[in-house]
TrEMBL record:
Keywords: ATP-binding, Nucleotide-binding
Polar residues bias spans: 163-173
UniProt-recorded name of the protein: Fructose-2,6-bisphosphatase
Originating organism: Polyrhizophydium stewartii
Location of the region described as Disordered in the Swiss-Prot/TrEMBL record: 1-29, 141-202
Pfam families: 6PF2K (PF01591), His_Phos_1 (PF00300)
Amino acid sequence: MQQPDAAAATPSGASKSLPGTPAAAPPAISTAAPRAPAAAAAAAPAYALPTCKLACVMVGLPARGKTYIARKVARYLTWLGHHSRIFNVGNYRRDAVGAMQPSEFFDPDNEEFARQRAEVAINALNDMIGWLDKLDDDDEKSLSGSLNFQPPSASVREGPLKTPTSATPTQSTRVDEASKKPPGSASTASPGGRPSAAYSSTDHAGGAARVALYDATNSTPERRLFIMEQCREHGIDVMFIESVCDDPKIIVKLSSPDYKGADPEKAVEDFQSRIRFYEKTYQTLDRSEAEGTISFVKLINVGSQVIVNNVRGYIQSRIVYFLMNLNITPRSFYFSRHGESMFNVMQRIGGDASLSPRGEQFAKRLPEIVIRNLGEGTRLTVWTSTLRRTKETARHLHVPKVAWKQLDELDSGVCDGLTYEEIEARYPADFEERDSDKFNYRYHGGESYRDLVHRLEPVILELERHYEPNHSIMIIGHQAVLRAIYAYFLNIPHERLPYIKVPLHTVVKLTPKAYGCEEERFSADIAAVDTHRERGTPLNPSPRLNPSGLAHTHSLAPSSLDVVSPLGRISLNN
Ligand code: F6P
C-alpha cells in the first residue's frame, strides 16, 4: 500500500500523527477542504434528507468480540438496504507485516513496532474516510430520484484524500470478508473499489446511510480523539462501540488468522501476552472524552449492561437498539415453508388456501423431523403467519404457537390469486419489470421484497434477542418471507435474495456461529410442486414436482478449535 503524500497532509501543511506513537514519521493523513454542510444545506430544498455518513469505531481489548459485533452490525445494515463496510485494522496489519508476529509486536513501549502499527491504523482510517466521503453516482441517483436529493459540492464528491489507497482496487482487498459481496452482484465493489447501488431510484423507501465500521482496539482516549477529529473534518459522525468483558464465564470467541496452523497452547499463551500489552494503555470509554461530545455505546458482558452516551439520530439509534438485542447464547432456529397448498398445486400465488393432501402429509411428518432434531430437554415455540396454510402445517406440533401478521407472505396486490402465466398476459410490462429488478419491484396494491425486509425487521430483532438456552424457535412461513429471513442470517445480497431456493417440505436449521452460520436441511421426502421460478426462464406448462431430495444436507462454517483460557473459551481457527 502506498503511503499518503506527506506534502498533502493538512491545510496548514502539518502532518498529523496518531497519538501515543513516537513522532518518528507516522504517516500523514491527508485532508482537503472539509465539506461545507451549511452551503450544501442552503442549496437543498427543505424536504431533502440529509446524507448520513457514520463511522462506528470499535473499542476494546483483544478477544472481546469486536469483530463479531462489527460483522453483525454490518450485516444488519446491509440487509436493511444501507451501505456498510468494515475496515479491519488487523487485516491491514497482516497485509503489511504478515500474520505471524509475536506478542512483542503489540508492546506499546517498542517504538518501531508502535510506529508500524500506527501506520496501518492510519491507512485503514484513510481508506475508511475515503469510502465514506465518496457519494458515487449511483448513490446520488438512487436518492435523488424520489427524494430530490442535492448532491454535495464536487470537491466533496471527489473525495478529499490524496492517498491512492482511498479508491484503488487494492482497497477492496482490505475490506473485511463479511462486507464483501459475491461476484456478479450489483453491489460488488467496482474496479474503483466503490460499491454500486443495488436499488432503483423509483422505489427507495428512505435515505440510505453509509456506515463504516472501523475495527481495531482504539484503546486510548488520545487515539479516539484523533479519529474523531479526522472524521469530523469530513462531516462524518462518529459513534464508538465498546465491548467490555470481565466475566470469566463469558465465552469469548477469537477467530484469528494470526494463529493459523499454530500450536494451540502456544497460541493462547502468546495471545494472553498480547492482551497484557494492550492492558498497559487501555482506558474504557468515558463521557468526558472530546470535551463531553463523544457518542458511544458500551456493551458490558455482551448485553448484560448497555451504557449509551450522546447517541443521536435514526441510524445510530437503530444500531444501539440492535446491539441491545444481541446475545451469544448458543441456539438454533428452524425454518420451514408451509406444506404444499392447493394454490401451489394450481400454480397460483398468494391467497389463503388450505393444504393439499401432500401438504397435509408433510404437516403430519413435521413433528417427527423437528422433535427428533431438537434432542431431549429442548423446548420449542412455533411462529406461523396468520394464513391458513402455515397454521395447518403447525397443527400437529403440540407446542406453544404464535401467529405473526409480519410473517404473512409477500402481498402480491392485484396479482393475488393469479398464475405467473396470467400475470404475464395481463400485466406484461410489470412482469418484465419484476424480472429485471425483482427485489425492488412492488406489486400494484402490494409489496416489494424491499418492503418485506422492512416488515420483517421486528422478527429478526426478536430472533436476535431470543436468549433462553434449550429453547428453539421454529418459523413456519412462506417462500418470499423465508428468503428474506434466510438472507439476513446468510448475508445474501438483495439482488440474489428473491431467487434463494426454499423448497417445500424441507426443514432448514440454522445455527449462528461466531463468524457465520451453520446450515442443515432436512427433507421430509414427500414430493411437492416446485414454486421456484428463475429470472427470465419460461413458465412451466405443468407443475413440476420437487424430486424428493436428500434426507439431510449439512453445510458447516469453518470448524473451531476451542481452547479454554482464563478469559473463557477461545476459539482458534481460520
Ligand atoms: O408461489 C408461492 C408463493 O409463496 C406465492 O404466494 C408468492 O407470491 C411467491 O411464492 C413468492 O415468490 P416469487 O417472489 O418468486 O414470485
